Amino acid sequence: MTTGSVSSRTRLSLWCAVNTDTVARVLAALAEENGLLTVTAANRKGIGRKTLTRAADEGVLRRAARGKYIAPTAPTRALLFRGAEMGGEGALSHRGGAYYWGLDGVDQLILEWSVPHNSRRTGPLVHRRRRFEDLDIVERGGVMVTSVMQTLADAGAVCDADVVERMVESALRKGLTTDEALRAFVASRVRSRHGTPTLRAVLDRREPGERPTGSDIETICLQVYRRAGLAPRRQWRVDGADGELVGFGDFGFPPKAFISELDGLASHDLENRQYDYDRQRRIEDLGYTFRRFTREDVLWRPKYLCDATRRGLVIARYL
Questions:
Q1: Residue 84 has pLDDT above 70, yes or no
Q2: DSSP secondary-structure letter at 268?
Q3: pTM of the predicted model, to two decimals?
Q4: Is the distance from CB of 245 to CB of 303 less than 8 angstroms?
């Protein structure tokens, strides 16, 4: 059994979509191609480019390069080779660390390293750190890499806030860290974290302890809404009259009883669609108004997305 097939099956169980036919086909194709699936090979198996893109957006696959996909947890040989070349002097960090941890927002491997300030290593992707000894560094798979929290703090020095937000939401979603731990990390030892102001600004965008978005495309949708002046709450909890949880909507807009939902790859099979429809009916029975959108609406029709949401808010009742 190849590394790719093992990683894919493990990822499938974590993703809670064992009965999703489309996901199973993608992962089977990945295993048949020894852990490296190209668009050309996928097309031969009846899997289109859009399906691969959606699978990558939802964490089933990871883009290794243009037109090439691997399992999210598959080791990257280039990392191991470069790690050995650094001679233990440096640590994979910034976008390199984000890619290594499988965070959203970095689609291709960018080998960025942090080294002590007195190191002879130089280059546009080598960051010489005055307080290198204060960095939170771990050894994983033979590579010295900054911890998830350190990686998120450093990423703010080379990425804008929207990209860092995508990284943060995916780290929280995957259970790699917690909102509380991130806030504590930002509040301490700031001098060794030159991207901390960006991370702090990202954390200010979310309520303490708020649930993470359900996928990368949901994070992008949240940013689209924000730029349009809308202020949704991610993963909005809906309780019944008895106080019992009925379900979570992708985005809620209190004080209006209105929810907008994104249809992703996981909702394409009959079982997941049936669950979504049943959940929607139960929430609508409580007086909520719904609007459903697609990934394409978010990426290519943001004005329509926002206009349709505003129309829904107009007719929605108050909570």
A1: no
A2: S
A3: 0.75
A4: no
